[in-house]
Specification:
Helix content: under 10%
Oligomer: single chain
Structural class: mainly beta
Order of helices and strands: EEEEEEEEEEEEEEEEEEEEEEEE
Shape: globular
Number of helices: 0
Strand order of the largest sheet: 1-24-23-22
Radius of gyration: 17 Å
Largest sheet: 4 strands, antiparallel
Mean pLDDT: 95
Distance between the termini: 44 Å
Strand content: over 45%
Length: 284
Amino acid sequence: MDVLAAGYGLIEGPVWDTTRQCLYYSDVLNGGVFRLDAEGSVSVQFPHRRGIGGMALHEAGGLVVGGRNLAFKPLAGGPSRVLLDNDVTEEAVGFNDFTTDSQGRLWVGSLAFRVFSDEEPQTGHLHRVDLDGSAHTLSDGVMLTNGMGFSPDGTRLYHSDARSQLIRVYVVDEAGGVSPWRVFARLPEDAPDGLAVAVDGTVWVALAHGGRVAVFSPEGREVHSIPVPLPMVTSLCFGGRDLRDLYIVTGSRGGPHENCAAVFRTRTETPGLALADCRVTLPA
């Protein structure tokens, strides 16, 4: 396992850009979005913004980033545009992880409490943002929304709930409706964080307390475990020209110092699913 970059507080939101052959990731605690190119050089893509737990590429040439709202930020610079604000429900205070489906719609989890505070945890929701920008609340009771990903055929959505120590799965219909969720996998000793899905339907999950990535079969049975050098494994994504590079990111908790979070890379036999760019219409 290669160490590609280090010295961060809490890395989240890794997303692979197949066009530019680079990785974007955020530092939740210290702020900023960073770009790691194919040659290993790291640069600041966006400075300052803190609290970004999820990101996705947008077809207009920018990134959708989470936090207090869901916003589009152009890669070439310029003003941000809000795609989803935290008034989507009375409880929402912001958004953590999210993903896109094959149509380019956004599927996002809202937070109902500020994670790095002494607030009593409240439950958030699952939302879908359609291509016209309209938002739809689909499910509730999510204690701490984290990684999301679709099965290869698009009929199942996996959704980590870190505080409930489980991964949900919903059946998704053609119109974007979802069935009542059921438990895909329970992790009573850990907190499932970011996730990614491979072409064979396996679900790869970062374990925030476990120092590893757990791989689950489409039936929810753990079939493989990948140890990671730091204990707080926060998220992951597939990348590289063949989508067989697994990028794994961490936080600093449990490590040697408060800014030891790192980006790791390892090779996999199974390629990951390519994610569609977001196609939600940008507000004027």
